[in-house]
Each structure stands twice: as C-alpha cells, then as structure tokens.
Amino acid sequence: MSAATGVVSGIRISHDRASLDAVEAACHPDEEAILQRLLDVPGVHEAFVLQTCNRFEAYVVTDGDAAGQAVLDDFAPDVGGHSVVEMGHEQSLRHLLRVAAGLESLVLGEDQILGQIRDAYTLAHESGALGPMLDVAVTKAIHVGERARTETDINDGAVSVGSAAVKLLDAETDLDDATALVVGAGEMGTIAAHALADTDVETLYVANRSFDGAVEVTDVVDHADARAVTLDELGETLDAADVVVSATGSEGHVIDADDFHDAGEVRVVDIAQPRDVSPAANAVNGVTVHGMAALESVTDETERRRRAAAESVEAMIDREFDHLLESYKRKRADEVISAMYESAERVKERQLSEAFSKLDAHGDLNDDQREVVTSLADALVSQLLAPPTSSLRDAAAEDDWGTINTALQLFDPDFGEDGRPPEFVREQFGDGDIPDEVAEQMPDDVRTMIAGDDD
User: Fold this and answer.
1) What is the average pLDDT across 34-54?
2) What separation, in Å, do the N-terminal and C-terminal C-alpha atoms of the chain show?
3) Phi and psi at residue 136, to the nearest 5°
4) Rounded CA separation 305/303 (Å)
5) Does pTM top 0.70 for this prediction?
6) Where do runs of H (alpha helix) occur along 411-451?
7) What is the number of H-type helices and E-type strands within the chain?
8) Residue 323 counted as domain residue
9) Is residue 8 helix, strand or coil?
10) Is 184 flagged in the annotation as binding?
11) Is 54 annotated as a binding residue?
12) Does residue 53 carry a catalytic annotation?
C-alpha cells in the first residue's frame, strides 16, 4: 500500500476498563493466526496485535477510519462492549507510544511491556503484516519506550508483574526460610524466580512442562537451593510450598482445587493469562489465591514516586507524537510530489524526442543546440511544478488530504504507460504540440528551431 494513503484504527481490551475474564476472552493462543485473520479481510493493508497478561490490542490500516472500525468491531465478539475501547487514527498512534513508555501498564513504568512490544513487532514483521504506516508507528513506540527509561526515572524502582507478585507475598507472609514455587519458566516466571531468589526463601522450586526449561531458570537465578521439577510433580511440590507464583502460557487451568488437598497454608499469586489456577481453589481451607487486581495495592507506593517522572514522559510523548504525524505528512506530500515530477519527466522526455525529430528533419542539431533545448525543458518543468510543489507541502502541513488525494489521482506514477499523456493532459496540451503559453516563454532562436522556421 502507498505510504500516502490509509489510516490506523485500533481496539483495546485492557485492565483499566476490562476484567481479566474479558481480556482472556479476547486473547488468542496463536498470534500469527490473528494477524493473518485481520490481513485476510478485504481492505486491510497492515495489521499489528499486542497480547500481554492484562491487555489485548489490535491495529489495522485501511483506506478510512470507518472501514477500520468495521473490521475491528466484530473482532472480539465474546467481549462486552463496555470493555472494548475503539481508537481512531491519532488516538491509536498516541496510545502505542504510551503503552511502550509504560504509562498504560498496571505497574507504571514497568519494563516488561517494552520487550513484549518488540516480540509482537518481530512476529508482525516476519508475518508480512507491517507496512509503511504501522512499521513506522511501532518502531517509533519502541524508540519512545527506550528513551523514557534511559532519560527519565519512570522505571526507577520499577517492578514487573512478576516481581510485584513477590512483593505482595512478602507483604502478606514471612518469606524467611519459606519454600517457594514458581510455575512456568517463561519471561514472567523467570522474573518472579529472580525476585524470590532475592528474598530469604529457603528453597525455590521452578516447575515447567519442559524440565529443561525449568533447569534453565534454576541455573540463572542466584539461589543456593533452586530445584527444577516438571508439571507432573506439581502436586507434591505444592504440598511443600508456602508461597506460589504461577505464570505459564497454558490455555487452561494448570492448578485445580484438588491439587491443594494436602497443601495446608499456602498463598498463591496467579499472574498468568489465561489464569493458571482454578477459581475453586480459593474455597480450599488454608489456600489464598490472588489475581492481577491484587497487585495494584502493592504498586501504589512505587507509582506515587514515579508520577513526577511520568509527567516528563508525557511531554516526551507529545513531542514524539508530533514528529510521527509530521513524518507521515512529509511522506505523503513527498510521494505526491515525486509522482508529479515523474509524470512531468515522462512528458518532457517524450516532447523532447518529438522536438528533436522535427529539428533533425531540417538538419542535424549540434550538441550545444541540443543542450539549450534540454535545459529549457528542464527549466520549464521546474518553474511550472514549483507552485504545486509548495502547495502540496502546505496541504500536508495543514492536513488537507483532499488536495493530497486529488493530486495523487492527477499525478499517478503509472500514468502515461502507453507513451501518451493522460486525457486531461491531452485536452490541455494536445498530443505533441507545444502550448502557445509555453512557446511564448522560449527564446526566439529556440522557438524558431522547434517550429521548423527556416527564415
């Protein structure tokens, strides 16, 4: 699709408006399949999807905002309408920047979201889902996220969801000499394992479907008694655990109520999406299960400390957002201007060829004469296109896309492929004759040569 056309439309289902059940209903296990599903819709030129433990977001590029929203309206049919936020072009672009900077995270300024956006970008890029609109937008978002964390204190003392889970456990129970269990060896599970290793837990278990995956985590955490187990050993490991953080990527429940039958007193923080722990587990005597919502209270103090930094990040986003919009405007204007000059160049070359043929019929032109005629043609093209070039750049700066789109239609880069100017040009200039108003600007000797006047 052309860089000069199309708008971004988006939807989001996230923790600020939706329940975890709603987010879970919107998410899909196969992100590549979601991208392809969007791209298969007629009129969708680009797509980008971001799924995390507490958000689902989808973006498309179409020829108009109404078309984009029509595509996305039916994309999450299992989610109540009050949980879905629709975003237009500018709102979508600004939101992407805010998400990458950590301003939309449950934990303000957390770092994990930036890595998740990078992963989503890589998948979309490899799937061929990105084009000139979303590639630039997501790249800009990643750039803003990096700047926010290196140039401000937005992540000073920041905690990820995984480490926030450990802070919650530490606030509610004595972790000294406790036995801890992390279920899942992915990114969040690894972060939780590191956070637990930094406490005074006596034993740290890491359970994973793949034993090798669990071993990779126990090998990298700084703990003297870190043990890897498989999910087949989960029951007996739960019996030994005092605290649990569960963060797998499984589609269904990994831990059922029956698994806690002999567990005794145990506190669990389930940060998986979909949730790992069956809701029925909370009814088991001695078992306390916290979900994502419980992490908000843990992070309140950290969030207060970073509000001042967030103000600086907001100002940074304002500037970068303006730069992003300006870059789109420049690209659109430059595309039209380039098309205009390419069209004019084809007409010029054709007219020069015909003029030289006429002149050669009256005797060969020498190189100096040819250079004079060619220079004249170049000068005429530059002078005639200077005003519309300026007007197009002004139109882009003023968001006058009506003028831009009209110019795109008039100066299609592919017009005149049959060697003749398009109809509107022929109506103005004819098929080969030089317009009188142009001829009047020519020097007398050149006009005489072109006209074939031997006098």
Assistant:
1) 93
2) 55
3) -65, -40
4) 5
5) no
6) 423-429, 436-439, 444-451
7) 17, 10
8) no
9) strand
10) yes
11) yes
12) yes
**One domain, residues 293 and 247:** yes
Q: Is the CA virtual torsion 126, 213, 269, 298 positive or negative? A: negative
On the question of pLDDT at 249 being above 50, the answer is: yes
Based on the domain organization, do 46 and 88 belong to the same domain?
A: yes
In a domain, 308, yes or no: no
| Statement: residue 317 has pLDDT above 60 | yes
- Dihedrals φ, ψ of 22, to 5°? -65, -40
Asked if 206 and 96 sit in the same domain, the reply is: no
Give me the torsion for CA of 403, 404, 410, 416, rounded to 10°.
Answer: 170
Domain containing residue 153: CATH number = 3.30.460.30
Residue 206 within any structural domain of the chain = yes
The Cα 335–Cα 329 span in angstroms is 10
| Residue in 26, 35, 53, 181 annotated catalytic | 53
Cα-atom radius of gyration of the chain, to the nearest Å?
32
Segment 332-362, tens digit of pLDDT:
777 778 878 888 888 888 888 888 888 888 7
The domain in which residue 182 lies consists of: 161-298
* 198 annotated ligand-binding residue: no
- Is 91 flagged in the annotation as binding? no
- DSSP run (H or E) holding 388: helix 367-397
Q: Residue 366, annotated ligand binder? A: no
Taking only the tens place, the pLDDT of each residue in 395-447 is 777 777 667 666 766 665 454 344 333 433 333 333 444 445 444 444 454 44
The answer on whether 312 is annotated among ligand-binding residues is: no
pLDDT of residue 102: 93
| DSSP secondary structure code for residue 424 in this structure | H
User: What residue type is assigned to position 116 of the chain?
Assistant: Q
Q: How confident is the model at residue 292 (pLDDT cuts 50, 70, 90)?
A: confident
Please tell me whether residues 411 and 343 are part of one structural domain: yes
On the question of a cis peptide bond just before residue 42, with omega within 30 degrees of 0, the verdict is no
Q: For residues 287 and 423, state if they share a domain.
A: no
